[in-house]
Amino acid sequence: MKILAIETSCDETAIAILEIIGGKFEVRSNVVLSQIKIHKKFGGVVPNLAKREHRKNLPIVLKLALKEAWGTKSSLGDLVPKLDAVAVTSGPGLEPALWEGINFAKDLAKKWRVPLVSVNHLEGHIYASWLESEPPKFPLLALIVSGGHTELVLMKKHLNYKILGETRDDAAGEAFDKVARMLSLGYPGGPEIAKLAEKGKPKSINFPRPMINSGDFDFSFSGLKTAVLYYLRDNPRADKAEAAYEFQQAVVDVLAKKTADALRKYKVKSLVVGGGVAANNALRRVLNILIKKSFPKISLHISPLWLCGDNAAMIAAAGYYRFKAKKFKKNIKAVGNLKLSKI
Ligand code: KG4
Ligand code: ZN
User: Fold this and answer.
1) DSSP assignment of 198-213
2) Are residues 167 and 120 in the same domain?
3) Are 118 and 150 in the same domain?
């Protein structure tokens, strides 16, 4: 069984082809064309620019993905008997950007006469962990940390989501991006802060850990961001590396504490971590230690680095389970604020 997936929810035009043989996943191709350079000068993603770029890039990325999977000779015509389904991200994300992927996917599915499934971008970040040799086991807890979302989700079986908690304001990645701007670092801010934080040492700064003991599984990073803003305003000669270090530490502490609380409350077999912020080394380190020391029976599945950022291989993995469950959809629409449980 082979599935082609398309992801255009933000500033990456991505197409992947996944082959499933005896239940095992083989990524045949995974092409990601990033628009970061274009959006960088605006300090964030401009929706209509993203839409224009997706429209221009989708046919190019498709050709590259086919080439990667089947070599130079493959043409679109050859593919009809080769593919069994098309999957596409329908939300959450920027609606103008999502529509480009959806319309492109609809055309392909029609042309190839194969079923079309829609995938929630966040479920894609969770299913990235199925592309590793040891897949997670149910029931599982998933921590999703991306540019737009911070969520703790309980999954008892495939495609079954219960949101235990989410951010009430800024997402973790969004806070990284905003604090990076305060520190005059580039976009996206996460990797820039992580790099600078390596040079920082804990000395005198003490940023808050918002909601760390709130007793629920919600997050809030807006207050932390404001604390950094005031600190930099009041200390114009501040050690920026130390500020980056302490900010990152505060985010990691909150994420790890809430995850540990949820692991204690819900008896799960695996912890899955995905999304752009899952690439953060400090977070990966702390979660590894947490599992080893306090939850040795739980298997930890943090997305490998090549699958943390937005890509279509993860959409294909989730799409495969939607295909298996026969969740075909003719009238797919872009939904900017699509919730995990509501696809
Ligand atoms: O999942 P993703 O690629 O896109 C969304 O679905 O939003 O996540 C992007 C976010 C950005 O906010 C970026 O700054 C953050 O992930 N990010 C990181 C790191 N790499 C990317 N945050 C912290 N540390 C990193 N190493
Ligand atoms: Zn994402």
Assistant:
1) TT---SS-----TTTT
2) no
3) no
